[in-house]
Amino acid sequence: MRATELSELAAFAAVARHKSFRKAGEERGVTASAISHAVLNLEDRIAIRLLNRTTRSVSLTEAGELLFSHIAPAFGEMTAALDALNRYRDTPFGRVRINVPNSIGPFVIGRVIAPLLQRNPNLQLEINATDRLVDIVEEGFDAGIRFGERLTEGMIALRIKPRIRLVVVGSPAYFERRPKPQTPYELKRHLCIQNMFPSGARYAWEFEKDGRTVSFQPTGALSLDDHELMMQAALGGVGLAYIWEPRVERAVADGKLIQVLDDWCQPEEPLYLYYPSRRHMSAGFRAVIDAIRAE
């Protein structure tokens, strides 16, 4: 159905409800003459009279009654559907899908997601955690969270505070067998768990202090691409892990892990929430952005 045909049917339905061209025009936001012209075009197109007109009144023909009985429910459902959409515009409601790196999932959940859901009980968040690079538009996400150097070109980006860092931890049992390293140069004498990208590539442990930078490439027997597994391996005394600080904060506070080289571990690139467009945001997505800005 063409737009002009739908507009003509809407004009006819308004006249049928009000039995008045003037009132139909007021409902549609146009003149009575425009309504009359639209209905005449509809009658000419289908070659059937739908309205009986006099200078004082308007009534439906039998054909008009039949047409109105069929289209009135449809227009009512469309109006109800548009009214229902107001919830998405006016109050945080519905589903928002966000892709986040698996390695920083606990940080995102604890700092952003949990407070957001407490303030907005009608909001539904779907969090997909993976360390692979995801095209959020192609895979149907509303937004993603990444470090600055991995942002997709052309996206709108909102910085998440605070910056987090990678730290080195080991279990008390491990440090009963080996001394705590005082500088990154001593790591070569330790059992170090290798950090692995989903592609299989290993990445170096980076350190900085007083303008000096040190890059250390572990050669340990165990390589992992999941930070939860790294933490469990460290807890089990397998070796030292280079891991996001929010993931091990509780274990360090409880004495289950010991953090070393603290003064060498500097904040990484900032995290960003990124998304493709500012146009016509739902209230739910605006609530996500507001929560991040409030951090």
Automatic annotation (TrEMBL):
The keyword Ubl conjugation does not apply. InterPro entries: LysR-type_TF_proteobact-type, LysR_HTH_N, LysR_subst-bd, WH-like_DNA-bd_sf, WH_DNA-bd_sf. One of its GO terms (molecular function) is sequence-specific DNA binding. Pfam families: HTH_1, LysR_substrate. It comes from the Bacteria. Residues 4-61 form the HTH lysR-type domain. The keyword Transcription applies. CDD domains: PBP2_CrgA_like_5. Keywords: DNA-binding, Transcription, Transcription regulation. PROSITE patterns: HTH_LYSR (PS50931). GO terms for biological process: DNA-templated transcription. Belongs to the LysR transcriptional regulatory family. Transcriptional regulator of the ttuABCDE tartrate utilization operon. This is HTH-type transcriptional regulator TtuA. It comes from Rhizobium aethiopicum. The lineage of its organism: Bacteria, Pseudomonadati, Pseudomonadota, Alphaproteobacteria, Hyphomicrobiales.
